[in-house]
Amino acid sequence: MTILEDRPSNPAAGDHDRPIGHGRMQRKEDPRFVRGKGHYVDDIVLPGMLHGAILRAPVAHARLVSIDTTAALAHPGVHAVITGTDLQALGLAWAPTLSMDVQAVLVTDKVRFQGQEVAFVVADDRYAARDALELIQVEYDVLPPVVDARKAMDPGAPVIRDDLEGRTDNHIFDWEAGNKAETDAVFASADVVVKQEIVYPRVHPAPMETCGAVADFDPIDGRLILYETTQAPHAHRTLFAMVSGIPEHKIRVVSPDIGGGFGNKVGIYPGYILAVVGSIVTGKPVKWVEDRSENLMSTSFARDYIMQGEIAATRDGKILALRTNVLADHGAFNATAQPTKYPAGFFHIFTGSYDLAAAHCTVTGVYTNKAPGGVAYACSFRVTEAVYLVERMVDILARKLEMDPAELRLKNFIKKEQFPYPNKTGWEYDSGDYEPTMRLSMKMAGYDELRREQKEKRERGELMGIGISFFTETVGAGPRKDMDILGLGMADGAELRIHPTGKAVVRISVQSQGQGHETTFAQIVAEEIGIPPEDIDVVHGDTDQTPFGLGTYGSRSTPVSGAAVALVARKVREKARFIAAAMLETRPEDLEWEKGRWFVKGDPSVGKTMAEIAMGAHGTVALPEGIDGNLDAEVTYDPPNLTFPFGAYICVVDIDPGTGHVKVRRFIAVDDCGTRINPMIIEGQIHGGLTDGVGMALMEIIEFDAEGNCLGGSLMDYLIPTAMEVPDWETGFTVTPSPHHPIGAKGVGESATVGSPPAVVNAVVDALAPFGVVHMDMPCTPSRVWEAMQGRTRPPV
Amino acid sequence: MQIPAPFDYVRASSVDNALALLDRHGAESRVVAGGHSLLPMMKLRLARPDWLIDINDLFELDYLLVDGPVLRIGAMTRHTTLLESDDVRHLFPIICDAERVIADPIVRNRGTIGGSLCQADPAEDLSTVCHVLEAVAVVRGPAGERMLPMAEFHRGPYETAVAQNELLIEVRIPIRAGSASAYEKVERRVGDWAVAAAGASVTLAADGTISHVAVGLTAVGLERNVTEVEAVLVGQAPTEALFVEAGLLASQACDPLADQRGPIDYKRHLADELTRRVLRVACSRAAASVSEITS
Q: Which SMART domains does the record match to this protein (chain A) (predicted)?
């Protein structure tokens, strides 16, 4: 029973507790999470289940001489010890990566990074499995590693990928975007050119839940059920079918509650494959869940871009052109997750929010003896690196021109009337209206007052910095004509069923890792058909129960799957019109829609609610030709373009001049993600992303020593921020709907992670201006800030 | 989940029982109090005791007692208890300063002063605090109790004078009239090990001159007080110039290592900077407490 009369007719206009449609409401998934009743991969217990553990390489580069598993096999409770040789016999020693490379599932020839998978033990419990790892005797012939990406292409550098035929160096790819000749010409005649090397160091998404799987292979009917920490269950099912030879209809991938993904759970890790092999070998379900060190040392890292940036401008501050050469460290296997055509992801959005005459970028990817990965940590396929580069370069230019960085940005924004805006590297920005967003952030910050305060403090020797970042993202991959992952188009499906009593279930192809899909997608349906969100169940994460689609990453759920859900709801609404007309014995074109019901034009008292129509659909009413007896529909949505959310961030820091310690005092974030479906969820996403940004700017880095040992292999070494490091966030918003998205929404999940690091670093560099500091690389730890104050800025790698 | 090597576990019911268990299980047994250092080391398999003797039931070691001229702190006193004690804040503000920056509330609720001192991590704050306050450790073993000044108790990084079959049971801190103290730490993030820290305790005579001073450093390779500052400060009225001199002596006395937390010169700089700061705060606190007494 709906209670429409108690509800506001237009909840999207404001925030309400129980909107029928868009608006602020508490998350439907929270009752189970706040009660500790979430159900994660590690909560899954199957009858007879065994446990796996992975032996990992202690060195970064070594030839594998021998493995002796005798003692491990004899350990009580051990069922199997699987080595690379065993996998070779099954044709499973190597698996394809998401970047058309291959990655060793278990080492057969050579260790290529510290923490690489060497052997897999299956035992009665995880304790026996872990203890048995110590009993495996491995002999390594240690080789010199390639640690510094800058030296990866040196003549004589050790060749890491000698498994690839004909490979004589560590080069992976060269890629470019934009027009080099045009850009060079603009640079040659520009009044002002500034250059800066900008390093975005290797960081790690470090989701609270590490990666894991439970594989259950039934040898009788040949069916595999794979419970996995995956952001892309359907894509995983297809890839498992292609790799394992198990037919796709015999594979069911289930992604239960996921404790954070951030891109860390897009790829297929050796551990998942090993759990499957373990189950096939033992005939029993096998669980494998990595520990924190394994997660930090072997799963997908993020960034690791060394960028040579150059910006050209006129003397009075008109930015003309940008160019950059990037050296990209991809680790030992090219396993980055991105659309096939774009080996550097969407880095070529590095022209940012500015109207330029020319732009050109080149990216060179190299192998090093480090863990593979590269596209992760809420980066929107490397928009993070792009935004960091352009927003730092604009600040460096402002310093050179002695212009206020806000003024310089305002002067160079793409103007509202220029949208849709084709940039110089091949993007078409769908929409934007940057100046009001920038002005709102400055108003919220009290920008002029902050500058006055800073001036006074500088006179007293106090270090206060104000940093601005204005970002434009490109999210919601993507149109199938341009974008695929290993040949799978980046579309998403949705199915909607209205049950006879008017309750609904919507099945989606994307998988939540904390984004609140169960709420947001119910609200999208509610907005379109007028059934309250609490009456709409959102099913996701199980390939047997949901339509095909590519999953949740790159802020694509709302732009792609959200569009699919809106369209499927409209399809149902339209079908309801025909059924209502049959019920009311009138013509469909004589009916008019108001949220939740179709009524007769001119006679609003005569109509049918969705619940009544649903019962009618399943009942005995004579239905018109071509209308089935249900109220169901399905769609697959191929987005016509990406969406381009944007935002203006202002960060205020205070630096202790005696210790170099940076305190983030204020952070103002104004986001424009188009139509806002649930403002509370958006704010949650923004808060999380801003915290990420403060973490990256101030403390996060995965470092390696000269031997290739990972120095960030635990949360004692890899620092992530706590509530103590972040201020009370001050958030605001503007709304510029996407013109091509059915409800005008743009992705927002990664905006803050993308946009905030440059704001923090710009603030730190601004604070250090009295010391002549023009740039410093992340992380801005106390010692690195102090070194910058001594005139000793240095890259982190 | 990180899984330690196999071990056995037993809960001690009294101090005597704990000592008997240590005796019985021998060299490969370890006492666990708060467990915040030992358990992570076990999970990383850097520590592999055969036996864990849990002393969390020894409530008789959880107390704070002003007993004449000393503050007696039971070894099982939790960080939170120290942080929240009015006596401690009044008598030894350095303890509150330090406790406020020891990890986070979850760690402080469980971690103990005894565990901290016995772990003797070079980046551990309470060891420095106890050195500066010239505390005495009460250690009990089969042969009875020993009283060890910090300089004897604390032998170096991860090393104390507590024998395998002994237990630290109490820390005694002398109370001095006219004294005050302070502690300051630099860390990359709350809960990280200190990049460096410094503590100072100062006693002012009635005429406002420094009658007694102790300065200690954390995480910079100095396992004793910076005794060099005494000659400069004692008998002098506190001034900024003296603090500068003391800071310089501290930076020279320490012997830091370069690591991910910073290069050597930065850590020496911090020894200097933080020494000046804690002396400044301790002197101003002492002056306030002297004027409180005299008025």
A: Ald_Xan_dh_C (SM01008)
How many CA atoms within 13 Å lie on the side-chain side of B27?
0
Give the structural domain span for A254.
Answer: 49-143+214-284
Provide the shortest C-alpha distance from residue B95 to chain A (in Å). Answer: 20
| Res. B294 pLDDT band, cuts 50 70 90 | low
Residues whose CB falls within 8 Å of the CB of residue A9, separated by 6 or more in sequence, listed in order: A595
> Which residues have a Cβ under 8 Å from the Cβ of B149 and sit 6 or more positions away?
B134, B135, B136, B137
Give me the interface pTM, i.e. the ipTM.
0.96
Per DSSP, helices labelled H in A552-609 are: 563-584
Chain A environment of B195 (Cβ under 8 Å): 782-783
Distance CA A359, CA A356 (A): 7
Q: Is the pLDDT of residue A210 over 80?
A: yes
**Partner A contacted by B6 (CB < 8 A):** yes
Provide the token pair at A70.
């005798």
Contacts A725 to B, Cβ<8 Å:
189-190
Is the whole model's pTM more than 0.90, yes or no? yes
Residues B211-236 have a mean pLDDT of 97
**B280 in contact with A at a CB cutoff of 8 Å?**
no
* Interface check B90 vs A, CB under 8 A: no
Task: Give percent of chain A with pLDDT exceeding 70.
Answer: 98
In this complex, is the C-beta atom of B44 within 8 Å of any C-beta atom belonging to chain A?
A: yes
Question: Which of A589, A604, A637 is a domain's end point?
Answer: A637
* A105 Cβ neighbours under 8 A, 6+ residues apart: A84, A87, A92, A93, A94, A95, A117, A270, A273, A274
Beta-carbon contacts of residue A3 (< 8 Å; ≥ 6 apart): A532
Residue A195, strand partner residues = A310
Domain boundary among A240, A256, A284: A284
